[in-house]
Amino acid sequence: MPYETIQYSVQDGYAQLTLNRPKALNSFNEQMHGEVAEAVDAAIGDSRIRALLLTGAGRGFCAGQDLNDRNVAPDAPAVDLGHTLGTLYNPLVRKLRTMNKPVVCAVNGVAAGAGANLALACDIVMAARSARFIQAFCKIGLLPDSGGTWVLPRLVGSARASALALLGEPVNAEQAVAIGMIYKAIDDDALLGEARKLCAHFATQPTAGLAAIKRALLQSLDNSLDAQLDFERDTQRQLGRSADYREGVAAFVQKREPKFTGEL
Ligand code: T3D
Question: Which residues line ligand 1 (CB under 6 A)?
Fold first, then answer.
């Protein structure tokens, strides 16, 4: 069945997933959660796909949870937000962080609430100069979720993380680069082209090596130096047995372009 809340396409060795509820700034309802999860699983499971591009349709990237789905009438029973995080948002964040292919996020406009932290769960975050990142949770009595309280202090330091989370003020793309929150700010009309170029590049690279880099960087956030050195040793041993490593070295020595299989 075709998707209704996202667009999903595969080209040049990568998949593009576009959040597509522009009238609600691509905020998440349950249907979109289901479709995003299915598309991400498809990208993970297809060996011809070697990178994932995540972006949004219209003027926003994603405004987090669709608040119209939260009945706040005084006599209505409270929605169990722990359940929605546990079953919908958290599995998505885990998938993006741990999938064995690079994930590029092209933040085309405002990224608020879980939308901001979903972007920050991606490996390379590029944003249009007009984009804004807003930890909007504090304005509705919630805490940053979808990994926000974990990733923010690690990216921008605890002083800035506290201010961003407690004030919920917008951070524009250039400020986000300056404080180390994202990789690059790009002119609005060039954003998608740059992101696609990057994904097409990743699709020609040694995918197992890139996956190992993702794993190592993630583990480093909790590991001691000793544990990390052991991890590097063990992982490098495996990578050193791969066809793509042989090809990379052979191409270097023979002064030609490598042809990586991307085998995982
Ligand atoms: O609930 C759970 O399961 C727990 C998980 C929670 C995760 C979360 O993400 S909680 C945080 C939810 N998100 C927000 O609090 C952000 C709410 N939105 C805003 O603060 C602003 O819309 C923005 C700062 C993102 C953008 O502002 P602006 O002025 O550029 O646009 P706007 O006019 O406010 O919004 C445009 C339209 O999008 C508007 O609809 P309309 O009036 O044109 O029909 C607005 O209602 C709609 N929209 C924006 N955000 C949401 C939304 N509709 C539903 N849910 C939204 N989150």
Answer: 24-25, 27, 63-68, 70, 81, 84-85, 110, 112-114, 134, 136-137, 140, 142, 145
